[in-house]
Amino acid sequence: MAQKKIAVFVGSLRKGSFNRMMAKVLIALAPAFLKLEIVEIGGLPFYDQDLDDEGRPAAEWTAFREQVRSFDGLLFVTPEYNRSVPGVLKNAIDVGSRPYGQSVWGGKPGAVISVSPGAIGGFGANHHLRQSLVFLDVPAMQQPEAYIGGAAKLFAPDGTLVNGETREFLKKFMEAFGAWVELNSTKPGKAAS
Ligand SMILES: Cc1cc2nc3c(=O)[nH]c(=O)nc-3n(C[C@H](O)[C@H](O)[C@H](O)COP(=O)(O)O)c2cc1C
Fold it and tell me: Closest ligand 1 atom to the C-alpha of 149?
Protein backbone atom coordinates (compact mmCIF):
# COMPACT_ATOMS: atom_id res chain seq x y z
CA MET A 1 0.00 0.00 0.00
CA ALA A 2 1.33 3.45 -0.88
CA GLN A 3 2.39 5.53 2.08
CA LYS A 4 0.13 8.40 3.13
CA LYS A 5 1.29 11.40 5.10
CA ILE A 6 -1.16 12.44 7.80
CA ALA A 7 -1.07 15.78 9.60
CA VAL A 8 -2.12 15.56 13.24
CA PHE A 9 -3.56 18.67 14.90
CA VAL A 10 -3.82 18.83 18.68
CA GLY A 11 -6.32 21.36 20.03
CA SER A 12 -4.49 21.97 23.32
CA LEU A 13 -1.29 23.81 24.16
CA ARG A 14 -1.11 22.48 27.71
CA LYS A 15 2.15 20.74 28.67
CA GLY A 16 0.32 17.84 30.29
CA SER A 17 -2.37 17.69 27.60
CA PHE A 18 -4.36 14.45 27.49
CA ASN A 19 -5.06 15.19 23.83
CA ARG A 20 -1.37 15.34 23.02
CA MET A 21 -0.91 12.05 24.88
CA MET A 22 -3.76 10.65 22.80
CA ALA A 23 -2.21 11.92 19.57
CA LYS A 24 1.02 10.11 20.41
CA VAL A 25 -0.85 6.90 21.21
CA LEU A 26 -2.73 7.14 17.89
CA ILE A 27 0.53 7.69 16.01
CA ALA A 28 1.93 4.53 17.61
CA LEU A 29 -1.20 2.46 16.84
CA ALA A 30 -1.63 3.56 13.21
CA PRO A 31 -1.25 1.12 10.32
CA ALA A 32 2.30 1.16 8.92
CA PHE A 33 1.32 2.86 5.65
CA LEU A 34 0.14 5.95 7.53
CA LYS A 35 2.98 8.31 8.43
CA LEU A 36 1.61 10.69 11.04
CA GLU A 37 3.22 13.89 12.20
CA ILE A 38 2.00 16.48 14.69
CA VAL A 39 1.73 19.91 13.04
CA GLU A 40 2.18 22.58 15.70
CA ILE A 41 -0.46 25.32 15.73
CA GLY A 42 0.34 27.24 18.91
CA GLY A 43 2.60 29.76 17.16
CA LEU A 44 0.09 30.87 14.52
CA PRO A 45 -0.91 34.52 14.95
CA PHE A 46 -4.67 35.15 15.04
CA TYR A 47 -6.14 35.24 11.58
CA ASP A 48 -6.60 38.76 10.24
CA GLN A 49 -8.02 38.96 6.72
CA ASP A 50 -6.49 42.41 6.15
CA LEU A 51 -3.00 40.88 6.02
CA ASP A 52 -4.02 38.48 3.23
CA ASP A 53 -5.95 41.19 1.38
CA GLU A 54 -2.90 43.48 1.53
CA GLY A 55 -0.60 40.70 0.28
CA ARG A 56 1.42 40.55 3.48
CA PRO A 57 0.32 37.36 5.25
CA ALA A 58 2.10 36.42 8.47
CA ALA A 59 5.13 34.26 7.70
CA GLU A 60 3.80 31.64 10.12
CA TRP A 61 0.55 31.39 8.12
CA THR A 62 2.42 30.89 4.85
CA ALA A 63 4.65 28.20 6.34
CA PHE A 64 1.64 26.46 7.89
CA ARG A 65 -0.33 26.52 4.65
CA GLU A 66 2.60 25.05 2.71
CA GLN A 67 3.12 22.41 5.36
CA VAL A 68 -0.52 21.32 5.38
CA ARG A 69 -0.60 21.13 1.58
CA SER A 70 2.14 18.48 1.71
CA PHE A 71 -0.09 16.02 3.61
CA ASP A 72 -2.52 13.45 2.25
CA GLY A 73 -4.87 13.41 5.24
CA LEU A 74 -5.83 15.12 8.49
CA LEU A 75 -6.36 13.86 12.02
CA PHE A 76 -7.83 16.23 14.60
CA VAL A 77 -7.37 15.39 18.28
CA THR A 78 -9.15 17.96 20.39
CA PRO A 79 -10.47 18.85 23.80
CA GLU A 80 -13.77 20.62 24.22
CA TYR A 81 -13.75 24.20 25.45
CA ASN A 82 -17.14 25.50 26.56
CA ARG A 83 -18.87 22.86 24.46
CA SER A 84 -16.99 23.87 21.32
CA VAL A 85 -13.63 23.82 19.51
CA PRO A 86 -10.70 25.46 21.37
CA GLY A 87 -9.73 28.80 19.84
CA VAL A 88 -6.22 27.66 18.95
CA LEU A 89 -7.56 24.91 16.71
CA LYS A 90 -10.27 27.07 15.18
CA ASN A 91 -7.63 29.69 14.38
CA ALA A 92 -5.49 27.08 12.59
CA ILE A 93 -8.52 26.00 10.57
CA ASP A 94 -9.30 29.59 9.65
CA VAL A 95 -5.68 30.33 8.68
CA GLY A 96 -5.59 27.27 6.41
CA SER A 97 -8.90 28.16 4.80
CA ARG A 98 -7.76 31.49 3.30
CA PRO A 99 -7.02 33.45 1.13
CA TYR A 100 -10.40 33.02 -0.48
CA GLY A 101 -10.36 30.15 -2.96
CA GLN A 102 -6.98 28.83 -1.79
CA SER A 103 -7.97 26.66 1.15
CA VAL A 104 -5.43 23.98 1.99
CA TRP A 105 -8.06 21.66 3.45
CA GLY A 106 -10.32 20.75 0.55
CA GLY A 107 -10.50 17.08 -0.42
CA LYS A 108 -8.09 15.76 2.21
CA PRO A 109 -9.65 12.85 4.10
CA GLY A 110 -9.94 13.52 7.83
CA ALA A 111 -10.98 12.13 11.17
CA VAL A 112 -11.88 13.69 14.50
CA ILE A 113 -11.30 12.36 17.99
CA SER A 114 -12.24 14.35 21.08
CA VAL A 115 -10.78 13.69 24.51
CA SER A 116 -12.00 15.05 27.84
CA PRO A 117 -11.78 14.22 31.53
CA GLY A 118 -15.56 14.71 31.49
CA ALA A 119 -18.19 12.07 30.89
CA ILE A 120 -19.36 13.04 27.42
CA GLY A 121 -15.95 12.94 25.78
CA GLY A 122 -15.99 16.32 24.08
CA PHE A 123 -19.01 15.54 21.93
CA GLY A 124 -19.78 19.25 21.43
CA ALA A 125 -16.29 20.09 20.18
CA ASN A 126 -16.23 17.01 17.97
CA HIS A 127 -19.41 18.01 16.18
CA HIS A 128 -18.68 21.73 15.97
CA LEU A 129 -15.41 20.77 14.30
CA ARG A 130 -17.25 18.48 11.89
CA GLN A 131 -19.48 21.41 10.96
CA SER A 132 -16.43 23.36 9.75
CA LEU A 133 -15.05 20.30 7.96
CA VAL A 134 -18.26 19.96 5.93
CA PHE A 135 -17.87 23.52 4.72
CA LEU A 136 -14.15 23.02 4.02
CA ASP A 137 -14.87 19.94 1.89
CA VAL A 138 -12.91 17.61 4.18
CA PRO A 139 -14.51 14.17 4.03
CA ALA A 140 -14.56 13.34 7.76
CA MET A 141 -14.83 9.69 8.75
CA GLN A 142 -18.26 9.02 10.23
CA GLN A 143 -17.61 5.68 11.95
CA PRO A 144 -16.32 4.80 14.37
CA GLU A 145 -17.12 8.00 16.25
CA ALA A 146 -14.59 8.76 18.98
CA TYR A 147 -15.66 10.66 22.08
CA ILE A 148 -13.11 9.68 24.71
CA GLY A 149 -14.26 10.55 28.26
CA GLY A 150 -12.61 9.97 31.63
CA ALA A 151 -9.25 10.99 30.18
CA ALA A 152 -7.67 11.66 33.58
CA LYS A 153 -7.75 7.94 34.29
CA LEU A 154 -6.64 6.76 30.84
CA PHE A 155 -2.96 7.62 30.88
CA ALA A 156 0.04 6.96 33.11
CA PRO A 157 2.10 10.10 33.88
CA ASP A 158 4.47 9.23 31.00
CA GLY A 159 1.54 9.22 28.54
CA THR A 160 1.20 5.45 28.28
CA LEU A 161 -2.38 4.32 27.78
CA VAL A 162 -3.39 2.17 30.76
CA ASN A 163 -6.74 0.87 29.52
CA GLY A 164 -6.58 -2.19 27.23
CA GLU A 165 -10.17 -1.85 25.98
CA THR A 166 -9.54 1.74 24.92
CA ARG A 167 -6.34 0.64 23.18
CA GLU A 168 -8.29 -1.93 21.15
CA PHE A 169 -10.88 0.68 20.21
CA LEU A 170 -8.19 3.18 19.17
CA LYS A 171 -6.43 0.57 17.06
CA LYS A 172 -9.70 -0.14 15.24
CA PHE A 173 -10.27 3.60 14.88
CA MET A 174 -6.87 4.02 13.19
CA GLU A 175 -7.43 1.00 10.94
CA ALA A 176 -10.77 2.45 9.88
CA PHE A 177 -9.09 5.81 9.29
CA GLY A 178 -6.45 4.13 7.11
CA ALA A 179 -9.22 2.58 5.00
CA TRP A 180 -10.99 5.96 4.88
CA VAL A 181 -7.82 7.68 3.65
CA GLU A 182 -7.38 5.04 0.96
CA LEU A 183 -11.01 5.32 -0.13
CA ASN A 184 -10.97 9.11 -0.34
CA SER A 185 -7.49 9.69 -1.67
CA THR A 186 -8.46 10.04 -5.29
CA LYS A 187 -11.22 12.56 -4.62
CA PRO A 188 -10.27 15.91 -6.17
CA GLY A 189 -10.40 18.73 -3.63
CA LYS A 190 -12.51 21.86 -3.93
CA ALA A 191 -11.41 25.01 -2.16
CA ALA A 192 -14.08 26.28 0.20
CA SER A 193 -15.10 29.87 -0.25
C1 LIG B 1 -11.61 27.24 28.79
C2 LIG B 1 -11.95 25.82 29.10
C3 LIG B 1 -13.21 25.35 28.81
C4 LIG B 1 -13.53 24.00 29.04
N5 LIG B 1 -14.76 23.53 28.66
C6 LIG B 1 -14.99 22.20 28.71
C7 LIG B 1 -16.17 21.67 28.12
O8 LIG B 1 -17.01 22.34 27.58
N9 LIG B 1 -16.33 20.32 28.15
C10 LIG B 1 -15.40 19.48 28.73
O11 LIG B 1 -15.59 18.28 28.72
N12 LIG B 1 -14.28 19.98 29.31
C13 LIG B 1 -14.04 21.31 29.30
N14 LIG B 1 -12.89 21.83 29.82
C15 LIG B 1 -11.97 20.92 30.52
C16 LIG B 1 -11.02 20.26 29.54
O17 LIG B 1 -11.66 19.14 28.98
C18 LIG B 1 -9.75 19.83 30.27
O19 LIG B 1 -9.05 20.97 30.71
C20 LIG B 1 -8.88 18.96 29.38
O21 LIG B 1 -7.84 18.41 30.16
C22 LIG B 1 -8.33 19.76 28.22
O23 LIG B 1 -7.63 18.92 27.34
P24 LIG B 1 -6.05 18.71 27.44
O25 LIG B 1 -5.82 17.80 28.62
O26 LIG B 1 -5.68 18.06 26.16
O27 LIG B 1 -5.41 20.05 27.64
C28 LIG B 1 -12.56 23.15 29.61
C29 LIG B 1 -11.29 23.65 29.93
C30 LIG B 1 -10.97 24.96 29.66
C31 LIG B 1 -9.59 25.47 29.96
Answer: 11
